[in-house]
């Protein structure tokens, strides 16, 4: 059994406040990660965390986000999957990242979400609709609705997940860096787009995060068939 990781994000700002008001919940952004420390993670969001006007498919950099939003709050969850599912999802993310400048944030689709009307704009997604569609292709269905209507709230309500961490991004980053300083053998260089990470290191990071943050909040855990 393997795991993928969903990070739900709360950041300040006027645009974020509008989304938060619409969703009526704290978390307004969703990230899909391949490891518990979010060293390799992707989402549809700002290409530069400080510039809200340009958005698309990007690899998340938690350090850049922390510098731009020092008060950001993260909720990191794990989802069970098969090894085959994880490798297929990883490969798809990396391939899409190579084509990232073809993808754009689906701003024209936002009114359809408000109206509850499914839509599809070629190569345009919201953070949640992209992840929902990708996971659905590999038999992990986040919500019983069209992927274009999936919002961060649906990820919060998704029952088949386990919460590993909830708190400030600063605390998450600091705890991770402290562990690396304590045990330099665990340090990993940034992952090249086409390099495969060690499953053993992912499991070790998951174990260490659980030790730092407690046992986590089990909400349900199931095995998905490949």
Topology:
Layout: E1 2-10, H1 14-23, E2 29-33, E3 41-48, E4 51-59, H2 62-68, E5 73-81, H3 83-98, E6 104-105, H4 110-115, E7 124-125, H5 127-137, H6 152-157, E8 162-168, H7 169-182, H8 199-213, E9 217-218
Parallel strand pairs: 6-7
Antiparallel strand pairs: 1-2, 1-5, 2-3, 3-4, 5-8, 8-9
Protein architecture, described:
The protein has 226 residues and is of the alpha+beta class. It has one domain: endopeptidase domain like (from Nostoc punctiforme) (endopeptidase fold (from Nostoc punctiforme), Alpha-Beta Complex). Helix content is 38%, strand content 23%. The protein has eight helices and nine strands. It has helices spanning 14-23, 62-68, 83-98, 110-115, 127-137, 152-157, 169-182, 199-213, and strands at residues 2-10, 29-33, 41-48, 51-59, 73-81, 104-105, 124-125, 162-168, 217-218. The strands form two sheets. It has a seven-stranded antiparallel sheet. The protein has a two-stranded parallel sheet with strand order 6-7. The chain is globular and about 50 Å long. The model is unreliable at 186-199 and 212-226 (pLDDT under 50).
């Amino acid at each position: 059994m393997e795991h993928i990781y969903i990070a739900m994000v709360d950041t300040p700002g006027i645009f974020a406040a509008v989304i938060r008001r619409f969703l009526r919940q704290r978390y307004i952004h969703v990230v899909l990660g391949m490891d518990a420390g979010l060293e390799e993670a992707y989402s549809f969001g700002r290409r530069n965390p400080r510039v809200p006007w340009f958005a698309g498919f990007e690899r998340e950099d938690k350090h850049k986000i922390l510098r731009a939003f020092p008060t950001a709050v993260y909720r990191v969850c794990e989802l069970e999957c098969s090894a085959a599912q994880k490798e297929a999802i990883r490969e798809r993310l990396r391939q899409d990242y190579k084509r990232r400048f073809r993808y754009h944030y689906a701003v024209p689709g936002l009114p359809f979400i408000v109206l509850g009307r499914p839509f599809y704009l070629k190569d345009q997604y919201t953070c949640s609709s992209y992840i929902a569609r990708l996971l659905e292709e590999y038999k992990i269905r986040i919500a019983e609705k069209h992927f274009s209507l999936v919002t961060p709230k649906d990820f919060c309500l998704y029952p088949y997940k386990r919460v590993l961490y909830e708190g400030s991004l600063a605390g998450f980053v600091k705890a991770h860096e402290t562990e690396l300083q304590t045990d330099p053998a665990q340090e990993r260089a940034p992952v090249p787009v086409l390099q495969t990470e060690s499953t053993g290191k992912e499991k070790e990071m998951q174990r260490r995060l659980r030790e730092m943050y407690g046992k986590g909040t089990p909400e349900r855990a199931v095995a998905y068939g490949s």
